Amino acid sequence: MPALWLYEKSGSQQGFARLLLQAGHFSMNHSLVSCFEGKNYLLIPVELEEGNSDYDLARFHTIEQV
């Protein structure tokens, strides 16, 4: 599933990421796996910050996979 990983401002809480997903694709029951800047991450859903008919803006806890 394509998603846009949004860049966090400096000083933001580390270990979390915000992703912009296609509308209706966020689920609190499904973790995601992603590769970002050459590292693999497990993304555990935390909350849906905003959702509408165009997109879902969601917050995930990130765990770097080794």
Tell me about this structure.
With 66 residues, the chain is mainly beta. The chain has one domain (3-65). The protein is 0% helix and 61% strand. It has a 5-stranded antiparallel β-sheet, with no helix packed on it. The model has no long low-confidence stretch (mean pLDDT 91).
In short:
0% of the residues lie in helices and 61% in strands. It has no helices and five strands.
Strand residue percentage: over 45%
Question: Which shape, going by the Cα principal axes?
Answer: globular
Discrete helix count: 0
Radius of gyration: 11 Å
Helical percent range? under 10%
User: Which structural class matches the secondary elements?
Assistant: mainly beta
Strand tally, please?
5
The oligomeric state of the chains shown is single chain
- Major β-sheet strand ordering: 1-2-5-4-3
Mean pLDDT: 91
Outline the secondary-structure elements.
Blueprint: E1 3-6, E2 16-22, E3 32-36, E4 39-51, E5 55-65
Note the main attributes of this structure:
single chain, 66 residues, mainly beta, five-stranded antiparallel sheet
